[in-house]
Each structure stands twice: as structure tokens, then as C-alpha cells.
Specification:
By secondary structure, this protein is α+β, with helices and mostly antiparallel strands. It is built from eight helices and eight strands; from the N terminus they run αβαββααββααβαββα. A hairpin with a 2-residue loop joins β7 (about 125-130) and β8. α7 crosses α8 (about 140-150).
Length: about 150
């Protein structure tokens, strides 16, 4: 039975949390990647950026202020502010940390390839960071998993 370590790409391309949006786009373009892990100075995965993070979809493009009422001089929001804040942050992102999906799902190198396949299929991800001892050691892609399961 193949493990994630057997099929993963070692030394994946990464970006740092402080990298500019422009440099992240350049890294994706130069390496022809659909996504890239965001790794801090200690080698830990802080997040992941995919092409979807770089585009504000039509449903997310509406940055209307959540409904609110004013009562006794206070503004009371009738909807949660978190989704609005998240959309606003992504719309005006200037660094990788601003646009990344934080705390992405990861997998251990000794996990079976079938487990990686299940996570990729269930979560509809194309890239899954491989983490050992809190540090990024590789990345496993949908294609890596398909090759392992059908090879």
C-alpha cells in the first residue's frame, strides 16, 4: 500500500505570509501552479492560496454593508460581520496572509495514499500540504493520488 510519502512532491514551491499579491501571482504563473502553500519562517504551513482565492466570485463581489439598525446612538448589526470582513479583506488583499485560507487541511507523510484520495475528493481540493513535525515536507496533488491508485 502506497503512502503519501511515496507519491508526494518533495520541496514544493511556497510563498511567505508577507509576500505581496503580485509576487504570489508571479509564483503561480512561473510554476504553472493552481495553488501554493503559505509557509512561515519556521517552515510551518500558515495557509494555502489557490486560484479561487485570487478571484472574487460574482456572489462574493457584493460587498454591501450588513443590515443594521441604530438604537440609542449605537449601531446594531442584524447580520454577522465576519463574512463581510472576510470578503473585504480578500478584496483589498496586499499580502499572502491577507488572501490565504488559514489553517488548511494537511496530511502526514505516513498516511495511506487512499486517505489523501478521500480528503481530496471530499474537500474538492487539488493540492494537499504534507506536514511532519509541524513543518511542510511536501505536497500531494489530485494527479499524484490518481497515478498511485491506478498505477
Amino acid at each position: 500500500m502506497a503512502t503519501v510519502a511515496d507519491i508526494m512532491e518533495r520541496d514544493p514551491v511556497t510563498v511567505a505570509p508577507g509576500d505581496s499579491v503580485e509576487s504570489v501571482i508571479a509564483v503561480l504563473r512561473e510554476n504553472e501552479l493552481p495553488g501554493v502553500p503559505v509557509v512561515d519562517a519556521d517552515g510551518a504551513v500558515a495557509g494555502i492560496i489557490t486560484e479561487a482565492d485570487l478571484v472574487i466570485s460574482d456572489e462574493s463581489a457584493d460587498l454591501h454593508l450588513p443590515h443594521y439598525i441604530e438604537l440609542f446612538g449605537a449601531t446594531i448589526f442584524l447580520e454577522p460581520l465576519k463574512p463581510f470582513e472576510h470578503k473585504l479583506k480578500k478584496a483589498f488583499a496586499s499580502t499572502a496572509a491577507d488572501m490565504m485560507t488559514a489553517d488548511p487541511i494537511t496530511i502526514a507523510p505516513d498516511a495511506p495514499a487512499e486517505e489523501a484520495a478521500r480528503i481530496i475528493a471530499e474537500r474538492k481540493h487539488n493540492r494537499l500540504p504534507v506536514v511532519a513535525d509541524g513543518k511542510l515536507v511536501g505536497i500531494v496533488t489530485r494527479l499524484d493520488v490518481l497515478d498511485a491508485l491506478h498505477g
